[in-house]
Design a protein that fits this description.
This protein has 207 residues and is an all-alpha fold. It has one domain. Helix content is 73%, strand content 0%.
Length: 207
Amino acid sequence: MDGFGLLALFLQSHDMASMHDMPHTPDQFSLFNHHLAGVLILFLAVFTFLEESAFGKAHSWVKYLWPMPLFAEAIFIILRGDSELQWPIRLATIMPDAEAVQHKIFALLALGIAIIEFFRRTGRLSHPGWRYVFYGLMFVGGIFLFFHSGHHTMKIHYQHWAMGTWCVAVAVARVGADLKPRTTWLPRYLLPLFIMGVGLQLFFYVE
């Protein structure tokens, strides 16, 4: 590549970087979606703590609360996750928008975790292998957030990376809790703390 080509490549990369720093008008619909998700995930953190507490051990119905915030979040994103999409939702209106497709994938991951955890709690999915599906989906969701694309500023990218880190931390804490069941502080304190980290990151999301 000659000098002119290198100069053109440098200018192009400089322009692409500067695009992330251009004035950005916050999308109020997106802010609402993220903040609502934050509230639901904070409820999930509370339910996680309650499930491992003495109160949760004494009242078996507490364990059925855990999947409910994920059910609510997944259904909301599937039905109304992107303001630019028209109702009714059809595949043709989703596929042209890569960001909308990614949002739907996140919703399906949340829905998958909710369904599996609900049936695990009812005893219908008793095989220990179903635990690994939870680990896998959490890892996939966390890593996926590192590559979440769209018309985003760097501030938004940084927040997505932080969310992804929290999700991976949740998966690691859950693995540790299941591998060492006698270590009660992992599921009782550390796991709810990491889930709370995801919720707070979403609740205080800015654009």
